[in-house]
Amino acid sequence: MLNTTKRILITLPTLLFPCLALADDKIEFNRHVLPILSNHCYVCHGPDAATREAGLRLDQRDSATGKADSGKSAITPGDVQASELIRRITTNDPDERMPPAEGHKPLNASQIAILKAWIKQGAGFQQHWAFVAPKQPKIPQPKNRRWPKNNIDHFVLERLERDGKKPAREATRETLIRRVAFDLTGLPPTLEEIFEFVVDQNPKAYEEMVNHYLASPAYGEHMARHWLDLARYADTNGYQYDTEREQWIWRDWVINAYNKNKPFNEFTIEQLAGDLLPKATDQQKLATGFNRNHGITIEGGIIDEEYRTEYVMDRLVTTGEVWLALTIGCARCHEHKFDPISQKEFYQLYAFFNQVPEKGMRGFTPSARIPSPLASISVQKNKSELARLKLELKKSVDVDPFLNQWAKRITAQPESGWLVVEPTTMKSSGGTTLKKLPDHSVLANGANPRHDVYDITAQSDVKKITAVRLEALTHKSLPGGGPGRHSNSNFVLSEFELTAVSLADPSQKKTVKFKKAIADYSQKGYEVDKAIDGNATGNNGWAVDGPTRKLPATAVFIAESPFGFEQGTELQFRLRHEAGFATHGVGRPRLSITRDAPSTIKLQGIPSNIRQIAGKIQNQRTKGEQKQLRDYFLAHHNPQQALKQRIAAIEKQIQAAVPATMIMQDLAKPRATFLLERGQYNEPRDQVSADVPSIFPAMAKTVPKNRLGFANWLVDPRHPLTARVAVNRYWQRIFGLGLVKTSEDFGIQGELPSHPELLDWLALEFIRSGWDVKQMQRLILTSATYRQTSHVGANAYQDDPENRLLARGPRMRLDAEEIRDAILATSGLLVQQLGGKSVYPYQPKGLWLELNNRPSYSKEYARGKGDDLYRRSMYTFWKRTVPSPMLKTLDAPEREFCTIRRSRTNTPLQALLLLNGPQFVEAARKLAERMLIVGGDTTDDKITYGFRLVTARMPSDEELAVFRQAYQSELNYFNSDKSAALKLLQVGDSPLNPKLNHAQWAAFTSLTRLFLNLDEAITKG
Amino acid sequence: MPHPLSDLQMLENRRQFFGRSTTGIGTIALASLLNGNLFAKEKSGATPRVGGLADIPHFAPKAKRVIYLLQSGAPSQVDLLDHKPSLEKLHMTELPDSIRNGQRLTGMTAGQKKFPIVKSPWKFRQCGKSGTWLSDLLPHMQTVADDICVINSVHTEAINHDPAITFFQSGHQQPGRPSIGAWLSYGLGSETENLPSFVVLLSKNSFNQAQPLYDRLWGSGFLSSKYQGVKFRSQGDPVLYLSDPAGGSDANRRVMLDRLAKLNQIREQEIGDPEITARIAQYEMAYRMQTSVPELADISTESESTLKMYGDDVKEPGSHAANCLLARRLAERGVRFIQVFHRGWDHHSNVQKNLPTLAKQTDQGSAALIADLKQRGMLDETLVIWGGEFGRTVYSQGNPQAFGRDHHPRCFSIWMAGGGIKPGMTYGKTDDYCYNVVENPMHVHDFHATILQCLGINHERLTYRFQGRDYRLTDVHGNVAKDILT
After folding, report:
1. With an 8 Å Cβ cutoff, are B263 and A297 in contact?
2. How far, in Å, are A969, A984, A996, B248, B249 from residue A976 at the CA level?
3. Lowest-confidence range among A53-62, A477-486, A727-736?
4. Which of A239, A377, A498, A953 is 20 to 30 Å apart from A364, CA to CA?
5. How much is the pTM?
């Protein structure tokens, strides 16, 4: 026990950890010594052998008290004089002085005094607290028996009493309901909820109010929103092109899991390894989207393995921060400098996450179309309709009458159409393997040279050929399943050429000149006529937006004059790929010819052979011909076409409603994992096998050494970190700071818990409750600690600016999403639709294109309409490289990586946003409209109504006087300038209410803008 | 009983708190809590400032501010700044393996079979008294050659745009670290109460293969988000949401803020939370910005002769020239770090057509900025930097007739001028192939260390504790290029 006369309380961060200055104070290793050693010594005398100096490590007692390379002992317990460490940190010889000056981390006199006292007292070491499993602490019994409402308060009050401090009084009911509503739903309470709670005489009124919000669907949204920061969730792929992805169904899963109160251990297992569970359900697989939320690059020129490595790193680092609150990433390049995690152990953990069958470039698979657990009724309806139509389709139809009629009709028409030619030889100048497929198309694979020229020949006895057709077909073996050979699925055909050679007399040759080219699709700037303009250099050629489109494309080249020799022709096609874009070959060309008159040529058409068969009488057709004809007819003119079209339309709707979500999956044959020298993808060293660091309890022998085993290990009740880290984050969410302030780092360099025993008790309580997340929120929110007022005066704030001692209730600015949602809610604009695709609310023009205007890789922000403008902020489309300015200005992160703690700043840009942002001005005028219509009879009534919606409380007389006066002067202003009133009332898409007096409405809008900009409006008090 | 050791520790903790506190208290309120400019008082002779770390500057700074003209996409050093007569002989010969020496290539030329060297088609000439070699693509820069220091020995590890530009901006190839400007705002605080201390200007882009930019390039990483760069835009409001909503007026804006302040004060007295006072101060700064920003963007007060220096483009909002002029105006108003991003240098093909276009877009404005700062006596306290994220290959990408140049990390050129930098100097040398550095290499970390040095910061001592580690802009590397400092 410290001698209180000697103990000097420092305000500010050391408040909790009073400084020790005198040798007879009892020194505690973890609290007093470890921070000094870790900060000032461990880089050279810590766990990392590679940078260890003098054979001395100070993180282990044996080494610290044993002999170093010099033969001397750094520490001789009990003997300050004999301890080399003390000599070296106090010597005046700059060559000997520790820590070395170039490290810029000198020890101060007080730190030296602590080290001396510690050695004098026997130099006891302790294991770092966070690596020892929590033990059930004794519940303290503070003097004040009446104040505590649950065990939390015993710990908090005991700590306060130790300092001779008292807790603050309970906050008002208005404050409490507003605080609870925000903490559980991220939304303000409604007026009805406020009225009901304020007058509720039931002794359990508070608990019932808490339960009411826990049961709200908005609870799941709010909790999920916090999880999205950890999960680095976004709607785009990050890195430089930052193209879109659809991962929102995974987000729906998280919302649903919180609303269903999925226990945190199950939640953990499913997020990390749901796919590996025995008989994993689709929903369990969907959950694993967590570790596919990292950025994915599509930058041309990147090295695949370099980025695949980064994705695995991101997964491991994120998982480590979220579940272990450890800076595992520090051991990527070398042994961890502070925590006992070796580089080898890092790669053993890495092995768990290194098994995904994925790529670095466009690594968007594996993925699966799994419906959202919140799927709307319309999706269900569509599904049953689909089943019905499919059943109908199965009913047999007699096709023959239809077929015969059709055959007759086309025979009567003049002959036209395309004849696919069969390639006889195929050659690539760059070594590409060209292979003929049964449909006479030519598939390119194998080597992918920078430039390539395909020479394809075919023979034909057709004369008077008027045009040739090139179909650039897609194939599953081509990149992205598209039409081109480049990794982005595109091709650039610089030039298309044809020579006709007489079969009878090869000396007769004709270079076919094309007068015109048409295509069903051309990329802007890469029109098809560039393939016949005689220019094969530069970037001049035909391309088809492969990166975004990935569809086949067809081009027709019309000859200046018909060609074809009497006794047959060899057609020598040449496809030249010589543009500035490397490896941009056509992936699967197919060539056809026609005799149609140039004016009637269509891109598609009935193939000549089909036409020929149709011309025969039915019994003259061979069996094969009959089948060919029938197949063609069914494919193109099926009498059940209408039915099929409806099925396709519904399937498309369902597909749009259920985009593929990226999920985790393990390779059937595990990928070998190696320690990577300096963390570099291209410097593998020893092979390692998956395992957990030895500082922790070992994985159970019964579980497999894969992600599932790892996830099970995390939620083993004996694990020292998982439960502590989770409850600490809940605490942080509610009180602004965790009991461990560095909620992202429970390691040796992290801060010690302010209330270590409370943290342990909460962690064990969490496990005991079956990892019941709602119960944990309930427990914290029903404590007396939470219910304290934050109105405690300037001195209290100065004494303990961060409220580490918890002598008052939490008070902090709301998060970005909460601020916007609150304003939408109070104005009545909020559209509360649970889950679904992301939406595009107001945003200043040009923000996307000013950073990226590259054709095919960029687009303008497509601002939404109607309901989409007023959804909760967690549904706002999250573009990593340009996050929503509304959210970003209010400290939302980019989500390029996992964020455990957001900044909470106070800036002029925030003031501008809240004063002038159209979303906020529109909300202000809608709130004013509400006040005018339902706010009561008198001006005071209306003011009070609106103010209460925003703050939950009644305005004081002093405030009311300001508002009255403000209203009057604004009314005068708008009466004198009606057009100004009209302009203000037209901000935003909401319609102008013609029934209201505009000057009055505008004056109230000025007032509501005032309300919404009050510190109180954006603060949880 | 008071004890000297405890006093010492108390001071230590005060410093730590005020220097490091990232949550809760805004800069302005902090300064007011501390009786005005406490930090400034600690350092004699320093300009009054708000925020920043107490021990910074570590020594007398040469530069007060930085204007960094970042040329995104990577300009070709061999055609602009690194004069290589040796290439005359090597033209159209194959790059020897001994020179390439295992350098990894991007996916764009990794499959190329030949690597024919292509000399620069443009003439270089020696300029000014210093005789600095500059390409004829930079006629205006040739007139200020005696004011700049050309560095031909910059190198990096990154070979693709995203990691390379992220490296230049934050000292790390993967996202997550603070940008240079954010580090400076954190370390040096602000010298203006009317404008942000870190401002970003984007040039309008006309090259359809240009690389995109991303918010993270001026982001604050793990530092408080208040340190991130603020974009001044050339379309719409220069600063987002700067304009009053339609129907508002200057008069009632002021009245409204006064009412707001009064109402917030009432609550502050009751609650005691200093955050409320800080909020009032932020609304006041917002109010000042509503005047100072439009004033700043309005170049009609500039003399004809000044406008002429910057060229015709200067009247085109969002041009490089216009942004150079705005940068000077921001510098005059106490903005610490001004970064202009110009895109479009990524010439994988047809260098001969594309490079002159880009050079023309940037040459005159950059040269005018130097001359303009100089004539106002500001050049010696303003560090001006021009450069991209890597260089370009001396060998041809694709057909040598319409040659392109691929990404090249082993050597490239930038120039620096003004505050703290020796003028009229050329630093660093590359080999005959313009492929490797042979003298005075300057790595990205060295570049950062040198910038900080000019600003009075020891790069090893500007640190921020995050996740248990004391992070630096220069990570665990960085050597100051002392030879180029005054």
Report:
1. no
2. 11, 14, 17, 13, 13
3. A53-62
4. A377
5. 0.78
